[in-house]
Amino acid sequence: MEQSRFRLAISLLRQLLRLHPRPFLIAVAGASIYAICTVASSFGLGYVVDEVIIPRFQKDSINQQTFLTASLIVIGIGLLRAVGVVIRRSFAGISHWSTSESLSTQLIRHIMRQPTSWHQKHMTGDLVARIGVDSDTSASVLGPLPFSTSVLLLVGLTSIWLVVIDLSLGLLAVTIIPLLFALNLGYQRRIDRHFDSAQKALGDFAEAVHESFDGVMVVKAFGAEDREHVRLGQISSKLKDARIKAVNARAIFEAFVDGTPSLVNVALIAYGAIRVRNGALTIGELSSFIYLFTLLVFPLRIIGYLLSEIPHSSSGFKRVRQILDEPIEAQPEVNVIRQNSSIAVQVIDATFAYAASDEPIFSRVNFSIPVGSTVAVVGETGAGKSTLLKLIAGLVRSQHGSVHIAKGGSAMVFQEPFLFSGSLHFNLTLGKSIHVPEIARALWASVSEEFVSDLENGIETIVGERGVSLSGGQRQRIALARAIASGRQVLLLDDTTSALDPATESLVLERLSSLSSTTTTVVVASRPTTVKIADYVLFVHQGRVFELDTHEALMNSNQAYANLMKSFEMERKAS
């Protein structure tokens, strides 16, 4: 078991230190300076006591040369020790946070490379916890590690120096050092399980809070606020209980761990006083001895703390590696249509199901969409309209058949748009260099120019997290403007205008159709006015996507389509 734990620790440290070795080595160098100066400071203390303090009391005078030498020794050692502490702490922090940042960045890049199908199999809250909490926990062992390496050097130098000062007293102290180390190690092992429980509870709580926030609209829609309060309360109670147990255990053991070295110090002073009386030690040497032993007690606890951090870091690193070790799944293939073609989108013999064992959402789909046209995708709830758009966009892959799209590519806008907490300008460009006329054109086409100009800071207005300062319709129009500004040739609108009134929705579609003769718009529609504006209709019904046709032709030739449009009209009149 111990050998396995040792191998696990070595493997963990090797993988972590590989990311940023230089700051860690500098931190170890600073820690070594601190260790050497700590031992040297006891020599300086003994020199001051024997050569300055005692002669002052005995002779009522001080040799100026001796006083200057003692001052230089004390000040020089103190300054070097301070430099060592600053270097150790600064670069240990740099090593810790640089490694944590690198792990987070690796996770984000790996996750971003995965296709939509991979994300559907992983909970968002769990991924966020791994990027944040687990990455930080993985690197936490690097904080105390440089100090711990210096402690080993300090223990070695101290043991030698204590024996040099006085053989019998030194052997007694050196014998006690392993006992103090074992005591600290035992304390850390006992406290480990409490902190492990608290860490797990913290991860569960972070995941639950993120998911609750992410699904706030669903919670409100079903009136489940009280249930969520109870659920989060139960999870937070587990976190509180685990923290209380850890604090209680820590209070009991720390009293014992702190008290034992003090009792040992009393014994060393008593025995040392006997040695001074017998002339085997000077008062300065005894002061140096006790001072050095006292300084050694706290660093010994650092090693115990380091050993307790290794399981924590290993647990976090294991969760990080679980994601990083997952292979990158194949992205859905979308073939590029040759230039100067009159076809913007072509789907050939496509069949799609979310899992191989599931019933296909649709089978053997074939259609072509002309360049510059506006197409309405119509169907009952759950018919597969959104899935069809995701297939065209390349977000999901078909089990059979192929998808072809114009060279300019596609941009998809969802019913629930996502806006970042920055400015409107950033949300429109996402950091890309887009000329002002193109942004103005996008705002005009999405019927956003008026409300944006009315904002106090215009396009530089900060919209808040998820665009909270904007209405639902405004967020949809900004998301649409972002897609237009991207310059993609095919716009895929997944019920993007659902929060707009019919008049504004009609104006948006009219402006989109007038943007360019090469811009093609495919929109999921559930309003008769929207369907009638479109050039063509794709009707999705019972796993089948009917060939592209006009609204009038489908009304005459397809009874299921006619019945659906009648229900749309009845719903519109009722509202």
Structure write-up:
With 575 residues, the protein is an alpha/beta fold. It contains 19 helices and ten strands. It folds into two domains: 2-324, Up-down Bundle (ABC transporter transmembrane region fold); 335-574, Rossmann fold, CATH 3.40.50. 66% of the residues lie in helices and 9% in strands. The strands form two sheets. Strands 6-7-8-4-9-10 form a six-stranded mixed β-sheet, sandwiched between helices. The protein has a four-stranded mixed β-sheet with strand order 1-5-2-3, with no helix packed on it. The longest helix has 53 residues, at 225-277.
CATH superfamily of the largest domain: ABC transporter type 1, transmembrane domain
The poorly predicted ranges are none
- Class by SSE composition: alpha/beta
* Rg: 36 Å
What's the main sheet like? Answer: 6 strands, mixed
Q: What is the global morphology?
A: elongated
Q: Give the count of structural domains.
A: 2
In terms of quaternary structure, the protein is single chain
User: What's the rounded overall pLDDT mean?
Assistant: 79
- Helical segment count: 19
User: What is the terminal separation in angstroms?
Assistant: 70 Å
